[in-house]
Amino acid sequence: MEYGFLTLLPPIIAIVAAVAFRKVALALLIGIFSGEMILFGWNPFLALDATVNEILNVCSDTGNLKTFLFTALMGAFVIMVEVSGGVDGFVNYLTVQSRKVKSKRAAMLIAYGIGILIFIDGLLSIMFTGVVTRPLIDKYKVSREKLAYICDATSAPVNAIIPLNSWGAMLMGLIAAEITAGFISGDPMTLLVESLPFQFYSILSLVFVLFYILTGKDWGPMKRAEQRVQTTGALYDEGVTPLLNDRDGIERLVPAGQGNKWNMILPLIVLIGGTFIGLFVTGGGSIINGSGTTAILYSVIVTLLFMAVLYTRQKIMTGKQFSDYLLKGVSNMINLVCLLVLAFAIGAVVKQLETGLFLASLIGDQISGAFCPAIIFVLGAVMAFATGTSWGTFSIMMPIAIPMAAAMDANMLLTIGAVISGGIFGDHCSPISDTTILSSMSVGTDLFSHVKTQLPYALVVAALSTVLYVGFGLAL
Predict the structure, then answer these.
(1) Of 433, 431, 403, whose CA–CA distance to 419 is shortest?
(2) Which residues contact 184 (CB under 8 A, 6 or more apart)?
(3) Distance (Å, rounded) from C-alpha 146 to C-alpha 270?
(4) DSSP string for 50-98
(5) Which residues contact 468 (CB under 8 A, 6 or more apart)?
(6) For labelling, which of 37, 167, 406, 453 has a CA lying 20 to 30 Å from the CA of 124?
(7) Residue 250 confidence (pLDDT)
């Protein structure tokens, strides 16, 4: 059944409700329920039952459960490195002992560098960057919103630009399907690599993040956030409740100034190394084909076991204290896990409504081939923003864009780059995207503060990307 413009209502309602009420969970629930109302002919009783079942279905999916468990256990990781003195020792080493970090610019550059280096998985990149650099950012009075922007604007773009991960495997699979169908010829890996220079949004995102870090020329809501923390020291706006409160209820077991940097560095090495090993094992000897969720989950479990041995042997904590902090860390993440469940559920609803396919149908067939990549980028961006998923956008748009480019004699590599860039933009900015939610959580701010400060920056990059797609479409 075709629902027409009604397919756009659930994501629009969810986004508007999130802005209006500042209650993300409530907004997502309203969005899910409105979508089920459309699917079940406006019957509220059937819609309510379907809403509950949709949420339960999300929780019953093994892949989703691994993501939720990893997220919850990362809460335990955050607390452990804090109470063990690892964070304090790490910050003291960088700022006092080695004097490698002497300014807010240097602190942000570390966050930027880590976001680029951890290209194996977007969620791990966000969590890792937030955990490692948040203390440095606070020390030099950088707003949590700015750190959230750095985390979010590096994770997905880097995953797409350096496709030695599950992103690359998925994109090559989509391109290979179009080769098999006869719409395009060549090798999937070669085509993907050759399209990398045309991922304008991803490339410009990384460039602009670096520009704002080096120059400090913030503007709009981000400038106000930076002025707030510089003048008042307030980490968040008045009335804001961060998704992860890393300030209250934590009794540090190591006195300030006596922390050991290795209590943070060694667990991080185990976490990253374990993830690479997990990708290699689950991929049958290929990191690209590995299961990111499985690798990260087992890696964080092994890391926590390592931390238990490391900290108890130093007599920093007892086994019982370790268990207590483990449970506290997990409990701190319950709200976030609930938000992820609801975000996945509304994604499933808009998929049933075929929101993405409806948006794709609006393209029509009366567009000049030169403008094809720009249209594909804009449509993909809108689709990803409305659905909150880059992968879903790739899966819908690639089978549409490649045949369309072939029929319109548009540049194929430019079109592939436009598909990927469009998906990255929406996933980067959408309030119902898992990466947007995780970025807010990992740095300890709220979702609305992150979205309102980041979106103006992202829209500028998107506008420039559109111009580039038009220009290159006319030139190539």
Answers:
(1) 403
(2) 175, 178, 191, 402, 406, 412
(3) 28
(4) HHHHHHHHHHH-HHHHHHHHHHHHHHHHHHHHHHTTHHHHHHHIIIIIS
(5) 200
(6) 453
(7) 57
What's the pTM value of the predicted model, to 2 decimals? Answer: 0.79
397's CB contacts (< 8 A; 6+ apart) are 356, 360, 376, 379, 380, 383, 419, 422, 423
Question: Using alpha carbons only, what angle is made at residue 126 by residues 110 and 455, rounded to the nearest 5 degrees?
Answer: 95
Distance CA 336, CA 181 (A): 41
Tokens for 95, please give them.
Answer: 């700022």
CB-CB contact of 143 with 235 (8 Å): yes
Distance, in Å, from the CA atom of 13 to the CA atom of 392, rounded to the nearest integer, reads 20
pLDDT of residue 204: 95
Q: Quick one: tokens of 229?
A: 């923390």
- Amino acid found at 455: L
Amino acid, res. 139: K
Give which of 119, 160, 205 is closest to 454, Cα–Cα.
205
CA distances from 3 to 9, 360, 451 (A): 10, 14, 29
pLDDT at site 149:
92
Residue bearing tokens 């060694």: 266
SS3 of the chain: helix, strand, coil, percent, to 5: 75, 0, 25
Q: What is the pLDDT of residue 113?
A: 86
DSSP state of 236: S
| Block residue for tokens 């961060």 | 242
pLDDT digits (tens, 9 = 90+) for 122-152: 667 787 788 778 888 888 889 999 999 998 8
Q: CB burial class (10 A; 0-12, 13-18, 19+) of residue 258?
A: exposed
* pLDDT the model gives residue 471: 93
Please, what is the end-to-end C-alpha distance for the chain in angstroms?
40
pLDDT (0 to 100) of residue 210: 94
What type of residue is 470? V
- State how far the alpha carbon of 90 is from the alpha carbons of 34, 131, 263, 316, in Å: 48, 12, 9, 17
Nearest CA-CA partner of 129 in 105, 160, 153 = 153
Structure tokens at 381: 């961006």
The predicted structure's pLDDT at residue 79: 83
All residue ranges of the chain with pLDDT < 50 are none
For 75, counting Cβ atoms within 10 Å of its Cβ (0-12 exposed, 13-18 middle, 19+ buried), the class is buried
Q: Nearest-CA neighbor of 84 among 329, 324, 317, 300?
A: 317
Residues 278-308 as b/e (b if ≥16 CB within 10 A, e otherwise) read bbeebbeeebbebbbbbbbbbbbebbbebbb
